């Protein structure tokens, strides 16, 4: 309500002029105190904003009154760190191993399954080595298909020289010219070679 409206109401109510003046003075004093409080609150809020802005500028190095650095030495150029090499570039790349000519696809898949179980790599270099072994060891008695079949049956991870095997059985002929034992398991050397072959090491 405005002061004029308040004075009018008091006059219509029969309030003496002195009472009306006192009431108006009281209202003006109250409004002045309220305005002063609002001004003080606004000043405090603005001061707080200024402090926060100055503090942020100091931390980030954007303050206008920041002292210049006394270090006049030239800046050390930034050196880019060694770029990370992608894993697929550092690991040997696996390739598909097609079944060689003259080899039963089932025996070839069994042979590859053995290599996978032994966690042997399937790179192009490894494939070239297996194909080279097949070509070097194959003959009329041991064609490529029979060599791969023997490797798969013996759980070999590589193609090994089939010494001591004839028609899928051990003949008892050992390496070094030693005669195998009567039990047909071959000499100690043969047993060691078979153990190495089961773990994917080429012997012979």
Q: What's the helix and strand layout?
A:
Blueprint: H1 3-12, H2 17-60, H3 87-90, H4 105-117, H5 124-137, H6 144-153, E1 165-166, E2 169-170, H7 188-198
Antiparallel strand pairs: 1-2
Characteristics:
mainly alpha, two-stranded antiparallel sheet, rod-shaped
Number of helices: 7
Task: Give the structural class.
Answer: mainly alpha
Distance between the termini: 114 Å
The proportion of residues forming helix, as a percent range, comes to 40-55%
- Average per-residue pLDDT, rounded, comes to 75
The parts where pLDDT drops under 50 for at least 5 residues are: 167-188
Number of strands: 2
Biggest sheet overview: 2 strands, antiparallel
The strands making up the biggest β-sheet line up spatially as 1-2
As a percent range, the share of strand residues is: under 5%
Tally of distinct domains: 2
SSE succession: HHHHHHEEH
Radius of gyration: 49 Å
User: What best-fitting shape do the alpha-carbon axes yield?
Assistant: rod-shaped
Describe the overall structure.
With 204 residues, this protein is mainly alpha-helical. It folds into 2 domains: 3-59, no CATH class; 92-198, no CATH class. It is 52% helix and 2% strand. It has 7 helices and 2 strands. The chain has helices spanning 3-12, 17-60, 87-90, 105-117, 124-137, 144-153, 188-198; strands spanning 165-166, 169-170. Strands 1-2 form a two-stranded antiparallel ribbon. A hairpin with a 2-residue loop joins strand 1 and strand 2. Helix 1 runs antiparallel to helix 2 and helix 4 (105-117) crosses helix 6 (144-153).
